[in-house]
Design goal:
366 residues, alpha+beta, Transferase(Phosphotransferase), domain 1, six-stranded antiparallel β-sheet, two-stranded antiparallel ribbon, 14 helices, 10 strands, Protein_kinase_ATP_BS, nucleotide-binding, kinase, ATP-binding
Length: 366
């Protein structure tokens, strides 16, 4: 594919892939560090999603470890129910992460438009997420940010998990890892306690509750507000509160996932007990894995993205522009650029056996 060179004495000049190898079509979204584009890889004509992430933003938000961690995880996590990485590279200003394009858009996009999904549709969606989490958890990884925005549809209506920025290989002492999205964050994370796979199942409970009622179980303007609500009351769906068209089994599924104490929560012992819950007992897991079932909800053939127009010309407005400016100056130093060393990834040249030996095979618990 040729080489991509940069004007710097000590900067890597041997990258096998760079921005010029892609044809940018249009913006499809925004993230915390930059934009997401629909791109075409010129050599093969394959279509991908490309995350373009500002190094200055990453530095200002003290998130270097998170973006490097995401790239490392995705180098060996390959599965039909997660959004897989194809390439990763950088220039002096940005990191670029090239992923599978999921043309169906994210679950939040459709939830905000459809307002309600049926129980059958929701069960199919949740089964997809459970399969993805089963793969992650068996590989020792906790996602820690399961929410509708991070669940994206392929063109057949199957949901896949994306955004591994705060995912972590499980370690026994992880009380300091408190990142996540308030409203979907498990109580043990919010209260800065050690945590395991059960945090991802709590998030599933929040999502199903939100689909059922059109609102999350715990609301608040801040993380503290939500934490106070969780500590004050254990949300439980009573029989007379179950919405029309939903079953008792669905309500029980949610109630068992929303348990504040992880020792009482469905999923503590892994995905198998989640799959065996009465609500999911009729799921054909083998057919789901093979994606041979017809999904009860299939996104339209049109682009299912919020930011197609706005993403191209809408400038970022930073609350902490001074920190961004300072970080931009720091990027002129090769020592700062070294923080992003090793970001390059090319699936066509990767050695999967080498990548696999680098991963921690600890099995997450609690």
């Amino acid at each position: 594919m040729g080489s991509c060179n940069f004007k710097s004495d000590n900067f890597d000049t041997t990258q096998s892939i760079c921005k010029s190898h892609f044809q940018f079509q249009y913006g499809i979204g925004k993230g915390g560090f930059g934009k997401v584009w629909k791109v075409e890889f010129k050599k093969t004509k394959d279509i991908f999603a490309m995350k373009e992430m500002s190094k200055a933003r990453i530095l200002a938000k003290k998130s270097v470890n998170s973006v490097i961690n995401e790239r490392k995880l995705l180098s060996y996590l390959k599965h039909p129910f997660i959004v897989n990485m194809q390439y990763a590279f950088q220039d002096r200003e940005n990191l670029y992460l090239v992923m599978d394009l999921m043309p169906g858009g994210d679950f939040r996009y459709h939830l905000s438009r459809t307002k309600r999904f049926s129980e059958v549709q929701t069960k199919f969606i949740i089964a997809c997420v459970v399969i993805g989490l089963e793969f992650l958890h068996k590989n020792g990884v906790i996602h820690r940010d399961i929410k509708p925005e991070n669940l994206v549809f392929d063109n057949k209506g199957y949901l896949t998990i994306t955004d591994f920025g705060i995912a972590r290989v499980w370690v026994e002492e992880n009380a300091k890892d408190t990142s996540g999205t308030p409203g979907y964050m498990a109580p043990e994370v919010m209260c800065r306690q050690n945590h395991g796979v059960a945090v991802d199942y709590f998030a599933i409970g929040v999502i199903v509750y939100e689909v059922m009622f059109g609102i999350r179980p715990y609301l608040g303007r801040s993380r503290k507000d939500i934490r106070d609500q969780i500590l004050a009351k254990q949300v439980q769906i009573k029989k007379d509160e179950i919405p029309s068209g939903w079953s008792n089994e669905a309500a029980d599924f949610v109630n068992r996932l929303l348990q504040r104490k992880p020792v009482s929560r469905l999923g503590l012992n892994g995905p198998e007990e989640v799959k065996q819950h009465p609500w999911l007992q009729d799921v054909d897991w083998k057919a789901m894995q093979q994606k041979t079932l017809v999904a009860p909800f299939i996104p339209s053939d049109e682009d299912n993205f919020d930011d197609r127009v706005q993403c191209d010309n809408d400038p970022w407005k930073d609350a902490d522009s001074d920190a961004i400016k300072q970080s931009t100056i720091l990027l002129q130093n090769n020592a700062t650029q070294e923080l992003f060393s090793g970001y390059l990834y090319d699936i066509s040249q990767s050695n999967s056996s080498t990548e696999t030996t680098n991963k921690n095979k600890s099995k997450p618990t609690n």
